Amino acid sequence: MLDVLCLGATGYIGGTVLTTLQKTLPSSFRITALIRPDPEGSRRTQVLESSGCSSVLTFQGLDATTELTDICSRFDIVVNAADACDHVESSRAILAGLVLAKKDGKRGVLIHVSGTGVIMDNGLGAPSETVYRDTDYELLAKLDPLQPHRDVDLIVADAAAGQIKTVTVVPPLVYGEGLGKFKTWSSQVPGLIRRALKRGQAEYIGEGQGKWSHVHVQDLAQLFSILVNKLAENPESVESGDKGYVFAESGELSWKELAQGVADAIKRSGGVELSTFEAQSLDMIQSVEQFPNELGRAYYSSNSRSRAVKARGWGWNPEVGSKYPLLLDLDREVIVQRKFVQ
Predict the structure, then answer these.
(1) What is the rounded CA–CA span in Å between residue 197 and residue 265?
(2) How far is CA 317 from each of CA 172, 233, 281, 314, 339, rounded to the nearest angstrom?
(3) Residues 297, 260, 254, CA angle at the centre, nearest 5°?
């Protein structure tokens, strides 16, 4: 019996990963969810247990590092899909726990969730031909340590120089309906939709020619299932440490294409909130007014183009994204997000 611990079980990605692992892993795996104290008493625990979790543990949060180390020391595989992927001390605590687990005869494996903000530029709407593959080891090794997520990614990679094995899944823009029991929507696409509904127009920055890769959250979760199985059956078949980046993507769009898709989807749903159905460009002064945070501007105007070479080599096939591509899924997302701006 292999014990798997999932962090982030009440979140968008983590909840979808947990649900997918419960449905797809064989009975030789025992899955535990780790959550913060429930503000509603025991409701979340009861929901997760009734959904198929072997057990649900609570802890005092990512800052409770001693507690986190102790918990992780009891598991073979830890899947860290918590939203706070940039939390340095909790990442160190998880790794320390897995070192203890390895010494106690367990597998000592971490699957860490990062994001392709780590490869994005600051193009502000300008195009780029740079595309990162997860087998481009020399190129990836040269990433600036100050890039988003990179500090924790390096901590995770360096830990693999010891006894434990670490793999970092690096999702791009994630979209689609989540399968978790709590949060079922993402951030970037809903953010664009809510802004359009509030401001009366869909917008992009500059030329809007920067491109991001994207993946449906349910396809992303299937990749985690493949990874957990591979790491259990043949750990050496999965590269680790500084070669442990794993991308996941099923397509890419420019920010202008995405903004126009948002306008079109709102129009199809009635469109009374919009004064124009043509996506509008924000110049640099307007973009600073609308996105005062430089990193926020980058997340809606940069290039972050990735290719999932490893995953496809393992047989990963993003079927849900083929059936529900991002532009088509906007119709569903507009209906969901409209409820939050009325």
Answers:
(1) 11
(2) 16, 20, 35, 9, 33
(3) 55
The tens digit of pLDDT for each residue in 309-326 reads 999 999 999 999 999 999
Q: Which amino acid is at 22?
A: Q
Which residue reads 């078949």 in tokens?
237
pTM of the model: 0.97
The token duo for 339 is 């409820």
All residues at 6 or more sequence positions from 121 whose CB lies less than 8 Å from its CB, including other chains: 128, 130, 210, 302, 303, 304
Report the greatest alpha carbon distance in the chain: 63
What DSSP state is assigned to residue 317? -
Q: Give the pairing of strands 211-216 and 251-254.
A: antiparallel
Length of the chain: 342
> Do residues 45 and 58 lie in contact, with contact meaning Cβ atoms separated by under 8 Å?
yes
The C-alpha atoms of residue 337 and residue 300 are separated, in whole angstroms, by 18
How many Å apart are CA 42 and CA 341, to the nearest integer? Answer: 30
Which secondary structure element, helix H or strand E, spans residue 95, and what is its range?
helix 88-103
**Euclidean distance between CA atoms 339 and 103, whole angstroms:** 50
Q: What is the pLDDT of residues 115-155, one digit of tens each?
A: 999 999 999 999 999 999 999 999 999 999 999 999 999 99
Phi, psi of 105 (to 5 degrees): 95, 5
Q: Are 63 and 127 in contact (CB under 8 A)?
A: no
